[in-house]
Amino acid sequence: MRVLTIIPARSGSKGVKKKNIKLLDGVPLLNWTIQSALGASHKLDEIIVSTDSNEIAQIANNSAVEVPFIRPENLATDTAKSIDVILHALEFMESKLNLEYDWVLTLQPTTPFRSHIDIEQALDLAKNSDCDSVISVVRVYSHHPILMKRIENGKLIPFTTEEKEGTRRQDYTPPAFMRNGAIYLTKREVVVNEKSLWGKDIQPLEMPDNRSINIDSHIDYLIAESMLREKSLD
Q1: By CB distance 3.0 to 4.6 Å, which of 8, 16, 61, 180 could disulfide with 138?
Q2: Handedness of CA 174, 133, 107, 192 (dihedral sign)
């Protein structure tokens, strides 16, 4: 398996200013993801950062990760699609090295607590199955579909699944999972031909709550800081 690892880190951010390089426990957010990738580097090939920012590029270079280009402006807007960013990086690296990869690993900096073990497990799942992709998920309780409602003609009714009054959360069935944004491992042919990071046959990688925090807002950032203070990552 030849794997290209891409860490997309643009400079703009609406929820948290300069989010990708904001310090978390004294370390730029981006570096948490870089370190997890480097921890699994014995199973990876090239690890690169795709960014539109010279400041972010310098931080990445100081962490021993390559920044082979500065991302074009049209791929650094709020409306730019993730798949186009990944395709650009893939095409650039394959052209530069005159080779084709087998898999593309996308690691978003906004999920800082994934570990190198999570990455290695994703690679093992991909190697031992005929899937299009491996995507990390976390089991949910407070966002379980049984809790979702809609309002119709002024009445509150189940969105999909009926909730019996008094149902305990451990009795929510079937178990529900949501993508946590930590790992997208995709076959090259799916990225190129289907322009997708998912594909049709997705292998789930379940991760625990404490490694699934996804920083999209200031509240998420405060939760991450609190987790570090309480040493709740183990």
Answers
A1: 180
A2: negative
